[in-house]
Here is the input.
Amino acid sequence: MTYEQAIELIKSTDGPVITVRVALMKKLGLGLSAAAFVSQAVYLSTHAHIKHEKWEPGWFFLEQTGDGGDKEDGLYKQLGSWQQSLGLSKKDQENIRKKLLEKGLLYEMPSPSRELRGDKGKGNKDTAFLTTRLIGTPPRLYYHVDPAKYVKFIMGLQ
Here is the structure.
């Protein structure tokens, strides 16, 4: 096999690429998995968000597990889930969200029903660039990245 043939074979079998900025990994201080999680959230919030008249731009949903078999063709089918796209188990995802919450980088909005009962959510919504919210029946965890807060975080302005 020639060099060119090997390169073509690699290209034909290569799938999506996970890109993590080293600056993000250092700034988070939570390791590669957390940085990959945040990087994926930033990408999806800015490129593949849900268009809904009641929601501000940037909200998205990606299942925790699964292969995306029930999705229409496109990015979400290709990614499948957090587990399939990043290799993060449900427990890994929960631990990352917990650490982001502790650092003030994640705000968990209350579900609509809890909000009606006065629940204010968890975390600091003034500093958090990542927001989650459980919506629907069965509940699905939606994500949103505030780009201005994210940029301030990366630049050390918050």
The first helix runs from residue 3 to 13.
